[in-house]
Amino acid sequence: MQNASRRDAPGRTQERSWPQCTRSSGLGRPSPAGAFWGRICDFAPPINRPQRPAGRRLRSPPTPESPIAAPVAIEPTPAERSLKLALAAARTAEENNAREVTVLDMRAVTPVFDYFVIATGNSRRQLHAISEEIDNHLEKDLGDKRLGIEGYNESRWILLDYGDVVVHLFDEETRGYYALEDFWNQATRVELPWQADSSGE
To answer: What is the pTM of this model?
Structure first.
């Protein structure tokens, strides 16, 4: 409770108590009550009004009927997070001139992985550059640390393991030989949003 002064007549002050509007937002800390949290605050904080000059009418400060709480970031589900990582890896590969970039949804096929990202590079140097750029983007920008890497020195099939997402970077001959898309032919191909946008222009 807090006290606010209310002047009813010149030289006379009356004390009035106001309840604090600090109902919980569900996040463990007080927040403004309102429609966003499904709660309504019965009282607004007190307003100290100035003396009204003679012959002049002052507008009352606006009081919102439904104060809106600050927006709260909603954490993505594990599946949404995996898809975001897979698409980010695919986009980074394309931006570094990888060819035939494919994302496979593996969730209906195996419980071990969520997504495969498959791409082809033209040379050892390009495969190294693609793998390093993907690793840099996923770790620095998305906060996902790589669990393991294989085939980097040979650079015919570089595998980047991010847990639920696995990135396969091939040279053209090795990709054709192992044909992961055919081996996992029950997996669903994920449409790459930026390709759909460019085709619709």
So the answer is: 0.62
